[in-house]
Amino acid sequence: MRSYSNPKAAKYIITSLLFTTSITATSLTLAQDGEPDGNRYYLERFYQQDISAAKAYLGMLGKLKEQRDEEDSEKENEDEKITIIDVRDATEYRMGHPKKAIHMPYPRIYRECVDNLRTEDGACASSTVYQVRQDPESLFLQIEEKIEDKQTPIATLCRTGFRSVLVANIISKPTTICDLKGYTDSEYDDCVATYQDRGYANVSNIWQGFVGQPMAGIISSSGSRYVVGDDQTLTDLTLADGSMAKGFVAYDLDLNNDGIISSDDKDGWRYHQSLPYTTKMKRKLINAEADAMGYYDLP
């Protein structure tokens, strides 16, 4: 059994390869619209694809074309710069974000932490006192006002890759707003008619997120890949779509070899990937709603 100086860092449940038949089948073919195949949380996917933080960074700078043969015309849309939408809350954004990232917080705008204790990236260090939630329809309308061209390459970013999937789905298929708001009957039909065909066509999710998670050890054996477990006792898990899987506490890797599992071992933009970020709050990038309500100024 491996010991950790920070036990909380070890408590990430990683699903094994023992998925149900329905999940295994989807991995053998291209994922269909809405299938949970691609993001790290097995959430349904209506957006185009999942990409790395490194690719998002190069796209933000407009340098993706330099990374491939100029004769390759099949990916012409990658010549355009990627617009990064950071969906973390006001404090998280204030304490560090990609230089050109537009702030569109969802599903929360702000949260107060117990004793105002936060990690260096702005997350609550222990628990939450209260949260200010964002309405999905308001989110979409704000993004639509900010980014008029529906062909704009967009990459959504959150802390670990969960909230960013939610936003990527909303802006790719805005009729999901009707379900999220709980509309029924004629109200639902009117909502669908309002948002049908208003989605963005070129949306990616940044898989690792800004902070990320510890990397799990993986071993290949007899043509199969297995997650190495710190506790080899398998536990029944329910995935986001209701499918069943098996999982155990993962054996997290000490990437920087300093003897502890810490933020520096997490796979996201800020830490292991060491991509540039800033704490400057530019007027054209911050969220007008969060700013008007003073959430950037709260502890």
TrEMBL record:
<dbReference type="InterPro" id="IPR036873">
    <property type="entry name" value="Rhodanese-like_dom_sf"/>
</dbReference>
<dbReference type="Pfam" id="PF00581">
    <property type="entry name" value="Rhodanese"/>
</dbReference>
<keyword id="KW-0732">Signal</keyword>
<dbReference type="InterPro" id="IPR001763">
    <property type="entry name" value="Rhodanese-like_dom"/>
</dbReference>
<feature type="domain" description="Rhodanese">
    <location>
        <begin position="78"/>
        <end position="168"/>
    </location>
</feature>
<feature type="signal peptide">
    <location>
        <begin position="1"/>
        <end position="31"/>
    </location>
</feature>
<protein>
    <submittedName>
        <fullName>Rhodanese-like domain-containing protein</fullName>
    </submittedName>
</protein>
